[in-house]
């Protein structure tokens, strides 16, 4: 009714819409019409269409920044597999998939626009409504022109209009409406085909705001309504049903929108009762007809389609004259006032209502397009950011955990190394003392054993058997063989006495040493061949070298009568410590000295002194000659008598004869062996200390070598620990870097989530329900 129209017009003038007051003025303060005023309103920053443009720009900026972020995050995740094990292949594949998804969304957003589809029966004025909204006669309309396919009108940045078809992207120039009509007639197109008309934005301000208008053939000329809906209606933000006000709402029109409502959830539908200027011829029926149309169309929207409430329906139904508005706006472009294009009385009300439709349409399509085009992308963007946040947060937490574990591992290794150092120092001191004790023990045992063997040297020499003769060649060979025999015999006896005990002590010490050192070595290294003790028993080498020791031995195997003057003198001198005279004589083996007791260095000098005395004595006796013998014989003869002298001389001669006859090769061999024993004993006692020191040195070298080998293995273990500590420190440093980077990327994910939330609150509503 008229009251509803007046209320709606008053609300429009009251400031509910942006900058509306000028709509009621058809002239300036001077009474002249300003042709640019209507176009200026289109460019007003308060236009609802600008909200969509701004929102589209905003969300495109967010997604372009997000694309850079996702690519950087993908590269970061990819690099983690080469650095440290804190991510898996699924993380990289997730980021790779999101990278492609964000690129697809950016591509979709760049093509997103506000789409309005016009439907109605043939010749109801759909093309005229579009032309009126565009303030220009763009689509062919009027007598002789019916739209036989879908026409999509959108803005372009080119200076000249052109059109393309579904089958070909070739641009076809269009310079005028008549040429466009002829071009459309020449094209043999199906009813569901789409022809895209690109009109310069500088010629039509509505197209500057990403609005796309789709004109359709009459819904009464084709039964393929389902195909139309699938191809051209599913992405429409607003549907405008243009009906003929001279008739009523037809079943065909209702059926079409029933199909649309079944495919879309509560589509935004505006109903334009066109050609309302015809009602001016019958003003008395105007209110009744208007109420009748309002009730029927409102009932269709509210009760049949159930797409809005009754109050909302009043703002979706309008009574206009598109042809009248188009003519008025064409007059405006020529500088004439709008009313010069009026077709009948009541033009001003119809014109205002058409402007009210445009304002409500702009508000609705902007709101609907923001919701349909951007809400899902906003939710999807939050899901993407949320998933990336979870991945990065898990990586960050894993880095922190790994870093904590590495720190503990580093501390354990440092403590382990310090413990090894302390134990190694203790074991080293203990082993040094142990080695020193064993070296001293070995030296004492070898010295005692060698001294004992020297004391029993005569038994060893007596056991020697080899052909003996005075011939110098045979004699030299005999002495060489005797040297070899004595050296082997002494060595064999020493080994028999010492080897077993020394081997047991060495093995015990080495096992104890190995056991203690092995405790410092990891389990997996304890069975290495270098760690295990030697399997063959240790054997000391006794280097006596009798050939060199007895090289200066000079035997004297000439016959010496026991009761001869020289022998008696030598025997007398022997009591003073001389062992054998220069002239030779068989003497007993002297008593042994205590082991390790230094030899008396004055003995050789004393021996030389007594040898000199003996030589002087013998020389003095020989110098007296026969005179001395006669004097002594005379004295003895006078003292004891001739008989005793002759008996004594006979006994003496018999003794001499006996000794001379028994001086055979065996006697000479025994004499040589006695002389050899004496000489060898003297020489061997000189090397007792040297030999024992040499043996103890062998033991020291063996034990020291074993300990050094074990220490080397422990040093290798310490070196491995140092390498492990270095690796852990490097890994910890790397984990620090990864943690910092993952936290930065994680915070950036939160930043994009906040941006999307702010976008939703600014353009879509205060609350956004997360859909995970």
TrEMBL record:
It is found in: Mitochondrion outer membrane. One of its GO terms (biological process) is mitochondrion localization. It comes from Argulus foliaceus. The lineage of its organism: Eukaryota, Metazoa, Ecdysozoa, Arthropoda, Crustacea. GO terms for molecular function: GTP binding; GTPase activity. Keywords: Coiled coil, GTP-binding, Hydrolase, Membrane, Mitochondrion, Mitochondrion outer membrane, Nucleotide-binding, Transmembrane, Transmembrane helix. Gene3D superfamilies: 1.20.5.110, P-loop containing nucleotide triphosphate hydrolases. The keyword Ribosomal protein does not apply. It is a multi-pass membrane protein. It catalyses: GTP + H2O = GDP + phosphate + H(+). GO terms for cellular component: mitochondrial outer membrane. Residues 110-358 form the Dynamin-type G domain. The chain crosses the membrane at residues 640-658. This is Dynamin-type G domain-containing protein. Pfam families: Dynamin_N (PF00350), Fzo_mitofusin (PF04799).
């Amino acid at each position: 009714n008229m009251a509803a129209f007046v209320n709606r017009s008053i609300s429009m003038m009251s400031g509910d819409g942006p900058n509306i007051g000028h709509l009621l003025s058809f002239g300036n303060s001077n009474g002249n019409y300003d042709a640019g005023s209507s176009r200026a309103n289109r460019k007003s920053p308060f236009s609802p269409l600008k909200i969509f443009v701004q929102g589209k720009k905003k969300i495109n900026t967010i997604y372009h920044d997000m694309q850079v972020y996702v690519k950087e995050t993908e590269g970061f995740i990819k690099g983690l597999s080469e650095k440290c094990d804190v991510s898996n292949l699924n993380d990289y594949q997730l980021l790779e998939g999101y990278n492609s998804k964000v690129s697809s969304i950016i591509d979709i957003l760049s093509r997103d626009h506000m789409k309005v589809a016009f439907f109605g029966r043939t010749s109801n004025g759909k093309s005229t409504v579009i032309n009126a909204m565009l303030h220009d006669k763009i689509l062919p309309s009027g007598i002789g022109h019916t739209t036989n396919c879908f026409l999509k009108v959108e803005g372009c940045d080119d200076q000249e209009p052109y059109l393309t078809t579904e089958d070909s992207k070739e641009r076809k120039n269009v310079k005028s409406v008549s040429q466009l009509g002829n071009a459309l007639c020449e094209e043999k197109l199906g009813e569901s085909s789409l022809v895209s008309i690109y009109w310069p934005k500088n010629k039509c301000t509505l197209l500057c705001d990403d609005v796309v208008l789709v004109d359709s053939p009459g819904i009464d000329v084709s039964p393929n309504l389902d195909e139309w809906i699938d191809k051209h209606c599913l992405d429409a933000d607003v549907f405008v049903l243009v009906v003929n006000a001279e008739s009523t709402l037809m079943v065909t029109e209702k059926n079409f929108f029933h199909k649309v409502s079944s495919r879309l959830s509560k589509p935004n539908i505006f109903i334009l009762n066109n050609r309302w200027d015809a009602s001016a011829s019958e003003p008395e029926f105007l209110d009744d007809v208007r109420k009748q149309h309002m009730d029927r169309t409102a009932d269709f929207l509210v009760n049949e389609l159930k797409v809005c409430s009754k109050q909302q329906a009043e703002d979706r139904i309008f009574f206009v004259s598109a042809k009248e508005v188009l003519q008025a706006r064409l007059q405006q472009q020529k500088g004439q006032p709008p009313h010069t294009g009026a077709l009948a009385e009541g033009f001003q009300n119809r014109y205002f209502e058409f402007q009210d439709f445009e304002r409500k349409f702009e508000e609705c399509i902007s709101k609907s397009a923001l919701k349909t085009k951007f809400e899902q992308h906003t939710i999807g963007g939050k899901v993407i950011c949320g998933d990336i946040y979870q991945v990065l947060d898990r990586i960050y937490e894993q880095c922190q955990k790994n870093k904590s574990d590495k720190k503990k591992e580093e501390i354990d290794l440092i403590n382990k190394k310090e413990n090894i150092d302390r134990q190694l120092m203790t074991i080293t001191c203990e082993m040094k003392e142990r080695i020193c004790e064993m070296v001293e023990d070995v030296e004492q045992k070898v010295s005692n054993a060698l001294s004992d063997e020297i004391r029993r040297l005569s038994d060893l020499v007596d056991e020697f058997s080899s052909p003996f003769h005075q011939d110098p060649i045979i004699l030299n060979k005999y002495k060489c063989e005797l040297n070899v025999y004595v050296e082997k015999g002494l060595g064999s006896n020493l080994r028999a006495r010492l080897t077993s005990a020394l081997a047991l002590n060495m093995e015990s010490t080495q096992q104890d040493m190995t056991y203690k050192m092995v405790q410092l070595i990891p389990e997996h290294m304890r069975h290495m061949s270098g760690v295990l003790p030697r399997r063959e028993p240790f054997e000391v080498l006794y280097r006596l070298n009798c050939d060199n020791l007895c090289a200066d031995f000079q035997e004297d195997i000439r016959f010496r009568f026991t009761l001869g003057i020289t022998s008696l003198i030598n025997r007398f001198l022997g009591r003073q410590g001389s062992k054998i005279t220069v002239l030779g004589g068989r003497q007993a083996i002297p008593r042994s000295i205590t082991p390790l007791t230094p030899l008396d260095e004055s003995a050789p000098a004393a021996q030389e002194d007594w040898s000199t005395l003996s030589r002087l004595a013998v020389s003095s006796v020989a110098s007296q000659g026969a005179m001395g013998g006669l004097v002594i014989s005379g004295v003895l003869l006078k003292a004891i008598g001739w008989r005793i002298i002759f008996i004594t001389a006979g006994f003496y001669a018999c003794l001499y004869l006996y000794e001379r006859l028994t001086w055979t090769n065996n006697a000479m061999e025994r004499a040589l062996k006695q002389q050899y024993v004496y000489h060898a004993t003297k020489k061997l006692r000189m090397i007792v200390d040297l030999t024992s020191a040499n043996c103890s040195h062998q033991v020291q070298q063996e034990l020291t070598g074993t300990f050094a080998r074990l220490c080397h293995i422990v040093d290798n273990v310490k070196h491995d620990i140092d390498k492990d500590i270095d690796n852990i420190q490097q890994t910890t440093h790397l984990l620090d870097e990864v943690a910092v980077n993952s936290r930065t990327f994680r915070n950036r994910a939160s930043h994009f989530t906040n941006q999307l939330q702010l976008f939703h609150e600014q353009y879509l509503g205060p609350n956004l329900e997360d859909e995970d």
